[in-house]
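Data availability (excerpt). The following record was deposited with the supplementary files.
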Amino acid sequence: MKLNTFLLLIPLLLFFSCQPKSSQNKLGAEAYARYLTAGNEVSTATQATLLANISQAMQQGGSLYAVEFCNLRAAGITDSLSRKWNCDITRISEKNRNPENALETGTDKEMWEYFYTLHRNGVQHDTVVAVDGQPVYYRPIVTGMPACLKCHGSPQETDPATYSKIQELYPSDLAMGYQLNDFRGLWKITFTNDTN
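Predicted structure:
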């Protein structure tokens, strides 16, 4: 019994001992809770919108058409949702497909390491940190559906035409080789201080 309790506490200990340095630049408890709720709402709605559109593209023309759709339309969808919620919605990854989704700041890299460690230990959550006075929400993205692997799985298992199109549209692509439930990236949502 004591061993089971200890094993259950390991992820919690990792969570609290691995808090990123960025979290030292704290928001007040009320602001933290407000931006955590808002970040969860925005990231959930954005992810659902993107997945619905990508699923429709897959049904319409398979993975080849979905890659072309993402290249032409995903950024526009995210931009329109950013305007709707008065925030900057981005996806970032160490293994990015679109160069605009690379880890750019020290905080991005720190949060990547933090969430990667948590994911390896079976812990998943979201958080808000203050970066230069701005609330920034981070939430992990995992390859949660088999359909994700049609464009992000192993190159050998990807349809050859789809793989060729990925190489054409994204010559510096790093976003392949994933398996189901792998840690793939982060939602990064930067709020203005007047966001409701």
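Summary of structural features: Residues 24 and 77 are 33 Å apart (CA to CA).
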